[in-house]
Structure prediction request, 199 residues.
Amino acid sequence: MMQKRPIYLPPADLAEREIPFRYESIRAPLRIHRCEYGAVYFSRNPSHRFSPIDGAHEVLYIGNKFSTAFLEVFGDRIYQNRLTIDATNWASQCHSILKITALKTVDLTAPETLATLSLDLAAIHAHDLEIPQAWAKGLMNHPTGFDAILFPSRFDGGDCYALFNTEATRNAIEVVETTPFEELGGAATMLDHYQVALI
Prediction:
């Protein structure tokens, strides 16, 4: 009989735990997004890891490395060996460079934080998105008042951020530059790297 490891949900006393946090600017933040929505677009989306439909805040996802952000958007299609991307979808994407000043961030890449939360990475990478979304709700409602979650990409382990739609977050974000994918050399390079064709 196949054995299953436990999946850890937020503990009942999460609100009472003193969770470590970082308070610093995000290094080299960037975002891949549909051009029509703009670079700063918070949402609640049940198909996203930390965006529960009944969460206290809408969420904006960013990274600090283009290859990681690319995989977060297109990785499932690439890893499922579907080595094509609809050309219309590709043309609808933009790459934005941001500037983000210090936010109160809970760091899920830090062993000390994971130990304090009684959390392992299997929970935030679980296929059942209700599990990481339960953690998102717990952290959104924590009395510390977090503005963001730092978490590792399930594809390459790179840094990803889920930014909560708080006043501090809105005031901290500045859009430096937005470029459509069709004009971005780095995007074409990723197609070549993963041997993906546009159709």
Summary: The mean pLDDT is 94. The CA atoms of residues 14 and 138 lie 7 Å apart.
